[in-house]
Amino acid sequence: MLSRAALSSSRTLVPALGALGSRQKHSLPDLPYDYGALEPHINAQIMQLHHSKHHATYVNNLNVLEERYREALEKGDVTTQVALQPGLKFNGGGHINHSIFWTNLSPKGGGEPKGLIPLLGIDVWEHAYYLQYKNVRPDYLKAIWNVINWENVTERYMACKK
Ligand SMILES: [Fe+2]
């Protein structure tokens, strides 16, 4: 679950979405920083699990489901096509939301937004904070502002306005 003030699509996401209609497989994007780069606000263990396990699972599931969907399309199996749709939405959304989330964070983040209404997603699933903050989600939500990449948020806002 991503709690978001708003979320924009941007040109950087077009390749991810474009793969839905082709035989191209989705792949896990590299983080633009090391797993430990957001410490002490988000520790390396969380970042590693979150990226290499949780996000990777969305990507893998999406690829499997898309393959099954293509087979169902070829067979004209509408019942299977319909049955696969919730999983496609869930895993496709998870892949896109996490791809945005990583770029909304930066070791050089923090500070204040630059006078714009932010387009920012913050992951509030327990896997995003529990290992470090346990059940105290408000502390995670306080700390994360130290690593928000306002430059990226501003870029997304500007791309959305065009
Ligand atoms: Fe997540």
TrEMBL record:
- Say which enzyme class the record assigns: oxidoreductase
**Is the Transcription keyword given for this protein?**
no
Q: What is its EC number?
A: 1.15.1.1
Q: Which PROSITE patterns match?
A: SOD_MN (PS00088)
Boundaries of every Manganese/iron superoxide dismutase C-terminal domain copy: 116-156
Taxonomically, the superkingdom here is Eukaryota
Q: Which GO terms describe its cellular component?
A: mitochondrial matrix
The alphabetized UniProt keywords are: Manganese, Metal-binding, Nitration, Oxidoreductase
Reactions the enzyme catalyzes: 2 superoxide + 2 H(+) = H2O2 + O2
Q: Which Gene3D superfamilies match?
A: Fe,Mn superoxide dismutase (SOD) domain (1.10.287.990), Iron/manganese superoxide dismutase, C-terminal domain (3.55.40.20)
> Where would you say this protein principally sits, based on its record?
mitochondrion
The residues that the entry says bind Mn(2+) are 50, 98, 123, 127
Q: Which GO terms describe its molecular function?
A: manganese ion binding; superoxide dismutase activity
* Annotated localization: Mitochondrion matrix
| Xref: InterPro entries | Fe/Mn_Superoxide_Dismutase, Mn/Fe_SOD, Mn/Fe_SOD_BS, Mn/Fe_SOD_C, Mn/Fe_SOD_N, Mn/Fe_SOD_N_sf, SOD_C_sf
Q: What does this protein do?
A: Destroys superoxide anion radicals which are normally produced within the cells and which are toxic to biological systems. Destroys radicals which are normally produced within the cells and which are toxic to biological systems.
Write out the similarity annotation.
Belongs to the iron/manganese superoxide dismutase family.
Q: What is this protein called?
A: Superoxide dismutase
